[in-house]
Each structure stands twice: as C-alpha cells, then as structure tokens.
Amino acid sequence: MKDDGTWMSEAARDALLLRKSSEEFKKILAQCSANRTKHKKNGKVLGTHNMGRRSAIEQAAEMAKNAGGKMPTAFELFKRAHTPKRKEMVESGMPMSVMESFTNEIAKLDEQGISYKKYEVYYKSAGGRKKGQVFGVGNAQSLFFGSSVSSTAAAAQSYTPGVLTQLQTHHEQLIKEAVDKVNQENEERLQKMNQENEERLRQMQSQIELEMMHKFEERFVQLALLLKMTLLLAEETLMKMALTLRLHFSH
Question: How do residues 234-246 score in pLDDT, each as one tens digit?
C-alpha cells in the first residue's frame, strides 16, 4: 500500500514533496540505489548489510549473549554484519576489500612472529576513520575505537582504543599477569623440588659411600686377621719341620 502522506500536516507534506523533487535528493537517491545493487552474483543482487533493522550495538550484545558474555571484536562484528545467511562474504566492494586486507595482514604478522592487536589491524584494514566513522561497525564504533578530536587525515588514520577495547586489553593483561604468576610459582616450585631431590641424592650417595667404606674396613680387618693366622700357622709348621730335621741329623 502506497503511503500518500495524508497522515502528515499539509505544510509538512508540501515540504517533503519539495525535498523529494530537488536535484540534490534525486542524486542521493540514485547513489543509494546504485550502492544497493552494485554487488551481484549470477545476476542476483547481493546485500552488503545483513543485520536488518538491528543496530550494530544490538548485534554486538546478541553476539556476546550467544558467546557466554564475551564481546565480539570489531572484525567479528563486521563479518557478522556483512555475511549473508548462506555464509558467504560479498565478492566485491568495500566489505570484501576489508576482509582480504584484514586476513592478509593477520597472516603476514603471524608468519613474521610479530605481536599485534586485532582492533588495530581492523582499523587499518577498514581505512581508518572517514567522516568520523569507521567502516563496518556502525554505532558500535565507540566500543572499539576512541573518538577523534581532530579531523586531519593523520588523525583519521591514527588508532585510539575505545571503551571495550581498553577493558578487553586490561582483562587480557590481568589474565597474562595471572598466568605469568602461576608459571613463575610452578617454576620456583619445580626448582625447589629439583634442589631437594639433588640434596637427597647427595645424602644417599654419601650414605652409600660411608657404608661401603665401613664394609671395606671390616673386610680388610678380616683379611688381615686371616693373613696373620696363615702366617702364624706357616711359622709353626716351619718350626716343626726344623725340629724334625734337627732330630733326624742328630742320630
């Protein structure tokens, strides 16, 4: 059913009709129409925005709810907003350009072993701030990116973290500190255990050496006594032999 505007006042309706008949409005209308139909596949127009009437902040809240309270990153929100239900990114235009730039940059940084923040990579991939807006995140941009106080080109390309980014960065830092503390405590505990084991091993070796020395001394004494008895026995035998010989030659 076509809206004839009868629900408006006559003055408001006349102002609207005058606005719609202006060349400026027709130019904007034509540009919007071209933007909506420039992405096609097999002759079918592909939408570049797939959240319906839901705002970016509402979409981010829903994604967080489905993820157990974990807020999405700027790229995750962008991808959700520009991915149709058939799970394919648009094949041309700004969304695909941002997608390729982001994934390529992440792959390059990972390959080079360089640490990075996904928010900063996305900000750069989206072309920074244009006319005060960061592409792909709608009214949720303040969650990820801080507001720019300057309108210069340099300021538009300069990344400043938003409220959510700062909170997540702080949360990540707390987790890192907790993990580092646990790792340090485990390392200290392991080092202490190694020292205690080494001390026990030294004590065991000393005890074994002492016991072996005692046994060696006992065995040495036994051998010495046996040798002494053997020598005495030999001496006695020789004396008997000498006495026997003496008696034999005396006759």
Answer: 888 888 888 888 7
**Residue of 92, 99, 152, 146 lying closest to 122 (CA atoms):** 99
Q: Please list the alpha-helical segments (H only) found in 113-162.
A: 118-125, 141-144, 153-157
Burial status of residue 74 (CB atoms within 10 A of its CB: 0-12, 13-18, 19 or more)? buried
Residue whose entry in the numeric block shows the structure tokens 């580092």: 180
How far, in Å, CA of 100 to CA of 108, rounded? 12
Residue with tokens 């995750």: 76
The tokens for 123 are 């900000």
Per-residue pLDDT of 11-46, as tens digits, reads 888 888 888 888 888 888 787 676 655 555 555 555
Radius of gyration of the chain (CA): 45
Query: How far is C-alpha 154 from the chain's CA centre?
Result: 30
- Domain extents for the chain? 18-47, 48-161
**How many CB atoms within 10 Å of residue 127?**
16
Q: Report the alpha-carbon distance of residue 192 to residue 186 in Å, rounded.
A: 10
